[in-house]
Amino acid sequence: MSGHFSPRSIMFYGGAIGSVVALFSLTTAYGEANLRAQRSIDGRYPIATSSLPGCLQSKKLVLFVQQSGIYLTGSLLLADAAEETIRVAEERPSLTGQWQNQQFTLDGTIGYLPGCQDGVRMRGAIAQESLNGTLRLNSAPDEIHFSAQREAPKAKSQEH
Predict the structure, then answer these.
(1) Chain-wide mean pLDDT for the chain?
(2) How far is CA 27 from CA 17, 18, 23, 24, in A?
(3) Cβ(124)–Cβ(106) under 8 Å?
(4) Which residue has the higher pLDDT, 153 or 136?
(5) Do residues 144 and 78 share a domain?
(6) What is the DSSP letter of 36?
(7) Residues of the domain holding 10
(8) Cβ-based burial of 17 (10 A; exposed 0-12, middle 13-18, buried ≥19)
(9) Of 8, 25, 59, 68, which alpha carbon lies 20 to 30 A from 47's?
């Protein structure tokens, strides 16, 4: 039993444990001082624009955005979409993209609008609670400028 507790072994294990603790402390201090998560932009954004292209004409639209770090997913829906459509769109978003340096891109299809299965690309900037950018359908030659203000989240009712 005395062979297990030699001064050399104790110094080796003490040094190894001390090194791990020191590295962990340095890493934690660096992370707390320099690494910050981007603010959340999840939410529902009603789109305001003067005119929409192609199959989107005269429709009131809402962009649902979900975020995981810099990665975005979303869906473009009618403002008065049924709860079931909203639930399905949240589970299987039709747009994917990224958010970096206050700029966002979303690409995909408009899969949840009746009569409109076109591809779409959205680009723009995020400032506070609003999105400002351009929307372009694959079938339309021009980009349309839009703005969208994030709606306050609805309070969820508790179910028993």
Answers:
(1) 85
(2) 15, 14, 6, 5
(3) no
(4) 136
(5) yes
(6) -
(7) 2-34
(8) exposed
(9) 68
